[in-house]
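Appendix B: complex inputs.
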Amino acid sequence: MKTYTYEKSRELFKRALKVVPGGVYGHLGPAEGCFMPVDAFPFFASRAQGAYFWDADGNRFIDYMCAFGPNILGYNDPDVDAAAHAQLKEGNCASLPTAKMVEFGELMTDTVEMADWAFFCKNGGDTTAFAIMIARAATGRKKIVLTRGGYHGVAPWTQKAGHPGITPEDVANNLYAEFGDYAALERLFTENRGEIACFMATPYHHPVFEDNRLPPDGYWKKVRELCTREGVVLAVDDVRCGFRLDTRGSDAHYGFKADLECFCKALANGWNVSALCGTDALRDAAASIMYTGSYWLSAAPIAAAVACVTKMRRIDSAKICLEKGTKLTEGLAAAGKAHGFNLVVSGEPSMWFMRIADDPDFDHHQAWVAECVRRGVYFTNHHNLFINTAVSDEDIRFTLEIADEAFAAVKRDGPLSARKGWQS
Amino acid sequence: MKTYTYEKSRELFKRALKVVPGGVYGHLGPAEGCFMPVDAFPFFASRAQGAYFWDADGNRFIDYMCAFGPNILGYNDPDVDAAAHAQLKEGNCASLPTAKMVEFGELMTDTVEMADWAFFCKNGGDTTAFAIMIARAATGRKKIVLTRGGYHGVAPWTQKAGHPGITPEDVANNLYAEFGDYAALERLFTENRGEIACFMATPYHHPVFEDNRLPPDGYWKKVRELCTREGVVLAVDDVRCGFRLDTRGSDAHYGFKADLECFCKALANGWNVSALCGTDALRDAAASIMYTGSYWLSAAPIAAAVACVTKMRRIDSAKICLEKGTKLTEGLAAAGKAHGFNLVVSGEPSMWFMRIADDPDFDHHQAWVAECVRRGVYFTNHHNLFINTAVSDEDIRFTLEIADEAFAAVKRDGPLSARKGWQS
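Resulting structure:
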């Protein structure tokens, strides 16, 4: 297959460099340090539909990043978009919320097993920050425990001291434990008894640049008991996994009950809304905090969310994504094996991580990802992937064909370090 | 005129109380402590168009809160909405930005006088937090100076130690000066020489519950010189004033140049986008920080923003809002005078604050606002008001008629403390 070129993306990038620091940001930007072979990647999209996006040069990609999560039902899902458009005609961002907020609150408390209430904002990070504030308000304690390498947004408290712009005070109350290490967590709780407000973690561990880790057997049950015993609020950051494992919440999927649960990405299929769900015990603490934003109750994204959650429940999107992801990742591993590469797949199949084994610095893996991308299969190399319900069997067949070609190309042309012009 | 009742709003509120902490949030919620006579207020909107919204009971209001700022051209402005809808057909939130991001960056650097670059996010608070991080990264210092009572969002660092959910460490690096007090600022800068990363303030002071304050003559010029001399980043929080004083930025309006300037509310007429603008000297610091969000480069709100900024420049929306606001506030003060009330108007007329003088606890003022609201003029009592370009001369005439009736009602029926059922 002919490989793509990106003339228009490069032209746009040159223009972007003048008016946006670093030209692009996030996972393609200079601060992430992901060392992608940028020459193999498009930088700008022109259009998106279903499982695909088209870049500025008109190249089509099957998109396994799904906008980094929001795309769960396929881009421009007709049911979700119809609900949003109907609301837009009436109004969107006004001085008061609409009945849609109430409807969404009722739907979330009916859908998410742990939820007695829901609170709506915009970013996933708005919900994780609010969860910590609620836990502190409820317990009168200030320390929080996070997992090493866990991602809860970009606010200073989620970053590392010494990183640009972060002060020691920003993270002064943070303690860290390895995800899945119950003994380490119990030790921290004992050493800081009466001082810990909250333990916040993702349902399973999905850091960048390393294998994702599922919770060990019995882990969450023991963590739940420990938190209850020690009076610590258990907050699950389900921003990324939410609705890709279980529409009842990822805590329900793993058989426990969180006190607070954060949702965002898949909530409205690309319309922007986030939600913090909580239990009755934390309702008054939540209401005591001044926490608001101009767009948080905008009615169109909330109408989209109501339609999206309703549809995700109806079709069981989580089950579909888990099944499609299983089929795809098994096929990718088989394609690798056929060329002598051991493709290690980790995490849950609806949101998997992959890397070629025995491959220091992701040297072969980066080259393989780049060979896939410039043939129309959009992966990134250092971040977990996502799947959506619009990916068809034919899409998966095409993906596996491209993956096969890409493994052959890596075998033939070597890893990233052997490619001219791919080190930029 | 018949006064409104709110049966459907109350029913919705009862339902909301079950599924959302406090039932509503923000300025109507329990955490704000604004002691409004809630029986006189609608709690839910059903529709918005131009200068109006309609509540859940079908009552029409001329809306002088403008969604707390976003409504600058009238709700559902046809030009802005057409641009957003055209983009929605192509796609919105995808794995890559679109050319619209570049276009918006070019438009902002061409529009905002101080801007060499722009960075886009969602909340106003995303931009104020990023400004602080950039200042810290650029200077290697960690203290920041804020103005007492200034509002920069809801993140913990913007709140007060001791408030629910806020730790001493959240605000450990904050210093405070009175807005407009140059001597106090200079003293803080001297006492903390070499330790201050940033001075952040709004262009003029618009706190809640007190008269808004314009910058004293020469204040900003001296502040600019002081910041330059001491190597402190001067960040202007133009989230609320932006495009209501001057399309070139409120710093240009007051004759100085900020290093960083935060925009959000009026940027896209209700579509959700925010922007941090900066100078070349801070470009590398901005690019060095990992700062991103799933929806920050969504193309539809950015397309709306491009159309909105273009239209605001074309029609000079700031001038229109200043003129309409002047006409309205002069009329309101005259209406008060006719009934023996001294209505004190402060701030800039496009975003004014008002209160009845010699009125402890806003006792008469709250009653007057409530009498206006239940006759179809939507004010709040403790927050600055907003105007938009869709407010017509007839709307102003109607507003002044209602204001007159409301003053008469207060004279007749007394202040808030004299009303049964208005203390909830």
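Chain A touches chain B through 112 residues (CB under 8 Å).
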